[in-house]
Structure formats: structure tokens, C-alpha cells
Amino acid sequence: MLDSQTIKKVITAAEGSKPHTQTVARVMNFLEKLGKDDVEQTKRRGKKLVVVDENAADRYHDRCDRDLEQPPAGNVMS
Questions:
Q1: Is the pTM of this model over 0.85?
Q2: DSSP one-letter string for 5-71
């Protein structure tokens, strides 16, 4: 489960500055679309959350670990 504050912290750590509220909302929407049936956006106690299916999270984690061990050919970011 990721709430908007957690996503905001991750973006801040990556970019070095706090993102606009709308940027955080766009990231939450993107994650929901990316995950299709494995990800849903919901509200609990007035907070918007992105919830990832546990099995899907394990698959994504494993895939990331493999990519770290064997990065894809070519550099995406120049």
C-alpha cells in the first residue's frame, strides 16, 4: 500500500524537490493504469491509497532484482 505522502517522499528523494500535489495524483493514476487488475486506487480514512496485489508486488520486485543484476542493453537515460 502506498499513500500520497509516501509517493511524495519518493519523488522528493529522486528529484531533490517536493512535487506539486497534482504530480503526486498523476503518479498514483499512472501506477493504477500500469498495474491493471493488480493495482487499485482506494480511499481509507479519507486518505487516497494505491494498493498493489501481494503476488503482483512479489513479481515486480523479482523483476526489478533481475534487472539490477543484468541491466537491459542500452542506456535509457543519457
A1: no
A2: HHHHHHHHHHHSSPPPHHHHHHHHHHHHHHHGGGEEEEEETTEEEEEE-HHHHHHHHHHHHHHHHSP
How far apart are the C-alpha atoms of 11 and 19, rounded to whole Å? 7
All three cell numbers of 23, joined, read 504530480
Residue 61, CB half-sphere, CA atoms under 13 Å: how many?
7
Rounded Cα distance between 4 and 36, Å, is: 19
Phi and psi angles of residue 17, each rounded to the nearest 5 degrees, phi first: -145, 155
Q: What is the pLDDT of residues 13-31, one digit of tens each?
A: 989 999 999 999 999 888 8
Question: How many residues does this entry show for the chain?
Answer: 78
